[in-house]
Amino acid sequence: MDENTPKDTINAPVRRKRRYDPSRRERIIAVTLEAIELYGITGTSTRKVAEMADVSLGSLTYYFEGINQLIEEAFTQLSLSISNEFRDVLGAAKTREEALIAVVDFIDQKIWGSHSTLTLSFELYTFVTRHPQLKSLPQSWMKQSRAALEQHFTPATARVIDAFVEGIGIHNYFDREPMTRTEIERVIRLIASAE
Amino acid sequence: MDENTPKDTINAPVRRKRRYDPSRRERIIAVTLEAIELYGITGTSTRKVAEMADVSLGSLTYYFEGINQLIEEAFTQLSLSISNEFRDVLGAAKTREEALIAVVDFIDQKIWGSHSTLTLSFELYTFVTRHPQLKSLPQSWMKQSRAALEQHFTPATARVIDAFVEGIGIHNYFDREPMTRTEIERVIRLIASAE
Amino acid sequence: MDENTPKDTINAPVRRKRRYDPSRRERIIAVTLEAIELYGITGTSTRKVAEMADVSLGSLTYYFEGINQLIEEAFTQLSLSISNEFRDVLGAAKTREEALIAVVDFIDQKIWGSHSTLTLSFELYTFVTRHPQLKSLPQSWMKQSRAALEQHFTPATARVIDAFVEGIGIHNYFDREPMTRTEIERVIRLIASAE
Amino acid sequence: MDENTPKDTINAPVRRKRRYDPSRRERIIAVTLEAIELYGITGTSTRKVAEMADVSLGSLTYYFEGINQLIEEAFTQLSLSISNEFRDVLGAAKTREEALIAVVDFIDQKIWGSHSTLTLSFELYTFVTRHPQLKSLPQSWMKQSRAALEQHFTPATARVIDAFVEGIGIHNYFDREPMTRTEIERVIRLIASAE
DNA sequence: GATGAATGAGGGTTCATTCAT
DNA sequence: GATGAATGAACCCTCATTCAT
Lengths: 195, 195, 195, 195
Description:
Four copies of one chain form a homotetramer.
Chain A: H1 24-39, H2 46-52, H3 57-63, H4 67-91, H5 96-110, H6 115-130, H7 136-149, H8 155-174, H9 181-193
Helix pairs in contact in A: 1-2, 1-4, 4-5, 4-7, 5-8, 5-9, 7-8, 8-9
Chain A binds a DNA duplex through helix 3.
């Protein structure tokens, strides 16, 4: 009782008493993804997420079964974001030529090539390895990528492009002299030419 | 101690639990890699490694600065193993045709396609993301792969093959209908044909 | 809320999850006793009780001061049930001989010997130890047991029988070879014979 | 490093660094029993035990699988103490008459009648209810009590006395007017007379 | 050189209770 | 009157690391 009574209006203690926060669940998920990007799954604790989301510790287990479910939902969202973005980029292409360029863009810098995306993907792959029930995440992600590519290429070609996107993205991440845009384009054209 | 001490035969050559063991350091590293494969970095603790290596807990910090150094050395060894194996497989190829088949084998089942290798690679990639000083590991690994490939292909082709190996390995790991050997071979031949 | 709201039949008498419920307080108490029997006081939480009673979480602190008051009321009810049952069983006896048999029945299987009753009694005894204001519960329970016995036996005998009932019930609960009905009857007759 | 460096010898920080504490495990068990008596199992936490034993938190899980194993060991010790004490008291009796008096003493005040013992017994009974693997504790305790009694009485009588001891102890604990020593003695003699 | 008992910060989670609606 | 989202202290336990022997 005492601790809630402000001595005077000036020194009133700042007490976080945020009730009614309708988008709380979504914010927690988004913040979790940020935490994973910043600190890795290893460094992502309930306490850190709660603090980053400006939320009490109890909120996490109020909305989620446990930290694993939280991570799963965060990854689900990540997976959706990436594959939707790929779909959008490819979907905007009207001709086969535009599609080719869109793929190159996707690798080169726009999405897949980004530090953030790759970092999160590595975390996801590693996590899926230990939690096989999440295999559906990269699976449906791959499925959607290929569906988007198949609007412009044959299934076989789509598959090869998809795999190349994956591989070159990772290699460029580590490589001190990443493959140039010109070279990427040459490869994509080569693959596409084989249909 | 008591239970291991022979009561009356003073010089009896009793096998102590922790016997004289010159290769202890190496064994700890090897066991750490096993632990990472089995439980992930997250699930690999000093206690578990010590127990698996049949070594005292103190040994770990006696031989290594800390658990991170231990993991780093384990990954260094992993990196060496994989790239050496790739070098050997490629090195055994006498003709360009044999080299092509060797690459297909490498992807298809022998090494890179294995569950164990991919699992460890994901752990490594994730770890490197948080410990940039280890970037040299995948870098020199890539360097050696390409050097091996360059015995039979141009540098540009070597690079593309290398990236494709990476990507298709990962995709096949997640894919419920992995790319067939025939299809893999077709792609490799396609890439090689562009020289 | 959405899923329970009828889309077009405005006045449809949809059964809400939480319907009008006049005996809610009593039900909560009864359910609490069930929870204690199933999970022990340790395993009985407000959430679990609310869920089992199909009642909102807030109801518990709305109807009760706190969980301790809830437990107290549950135990009060338990105490009443058991002692009333004992009173009824004894009250139905018309002769001293029938009373003897009734006591044997009470121990042997009917009430006191039951797993459920003993489980709850242990919980109660333990709880009373930490909340002395509840000592009146076993006290009035004992008082009523003796009053029922005194319809057929002297106070001194009633007391001894009562204590024996307590002791043999507990021992038979743990004993792998419980005391037989014949033997129980022999003891009761022995005690009764001393008047 | 900084925090360990004393600024001067006078203000050297007091750091509990108790290494080598050979009886630590036993002390933790003993302290746990004290904690259970004082606060009940419900109120006995790892933190409280660690503090009471002047031991670090980690020591508890270093020596015990978890808090349940700790409680089990504490109860095992309790069970041993009580039944040994009963054995000793009875064992000191040379004649049947002395044995009778020993039993009365045991109930009346010495051991079983004590607040402490009954409190712990209630906790034990309640705990066993939820952890059936501990049923052997009260079982072997009963077994030993009867063995001690059978030095002076027939098995049937031993069993009845044992049950009566249990029941009267509990009832006297709750009763505002406990059974007098004289009355207890009368009952014991009555039971013994039936052989 | 080698050990393993000891440490304590930090992990995930549960809980009774509060209170704006 | 009744709700349930929100709180934060406290729970048990794991961990890398230290250090007296």
